[in-house]
Amino acid sequence: MSDIQRRIAARVVPHIPARSVVNLGIGIPTMVADHLPDHAAYLHTENGLLGVGPTPAPDRVDPDLVHAGKQPVTARPGAAYFASSQSFGMIRGGHVEVAVLGALQIDAAGHIANWAIPGKPVLGVGGAMDLLVGARTVVVATTHTAKDGSPKIVAECAFPLTARRPVDVVVTEAATFRVIDGGLVLTEVADGFTLEWVRGHTSADYRVAVEPARV
């Protein structure tokens, strides 16, 4: 993972309430575990573990202990193990307070596309659809632009939507947006970036209510 991705993961931490149950999606979201203070939250993975810890050192990897993306994790003392069906029951029953998801695109109303690119092989939507519908708060952790430099925050998603429920917060290396009254509101510009940079790399309309940078 790159330094930019690690920075994004660190910038998500202030949006996680203390002692909340949090599911971390594949990619940048999984890195949030490495930036959370000990016992700041109860991390949940849909393959059946509540109490996920930080990424293990190479010599401490347990091949049987992985998150939903099949990457190694640790388990904190007191962690609980259960069937995937029970894990999805927790999600669908509203018992996950925060979901942190990656995104390919975010539209002007806060809907996300994060599971399929037309013309490329598709493994399936996984748990993202359930998390968008079932989690009480959804935070997106993503780079501000795609690899080709095009904006990820767009007027309308060109890729298939993951669900019709909009997210609540979008965190990139450059900015933080909240979804309020059906639209995006820029609430923070990160250190090292400017309003002009954000405006030039965001194609969706948004309102501006900037707070001082926190991370």
UniProtKB/TrEMBL annotation:
Keyword Zinc: no
SMART domains with a match to the protein in the record: CoA_trans (SM00882)
Gene3D superfamilies: Glutaconate Coenzyme A-transferase
Keywords, alphabetical: Transferase
Keyword Transferase applies: yes
Family per similarity comment: Belongs to the 3-oxoacid CoA-transferase subunit B family.
NCBIfam families per record: pcaJ_scoB_fam
Name of the protein: 3-oxoacid CoA-transferase subunit B
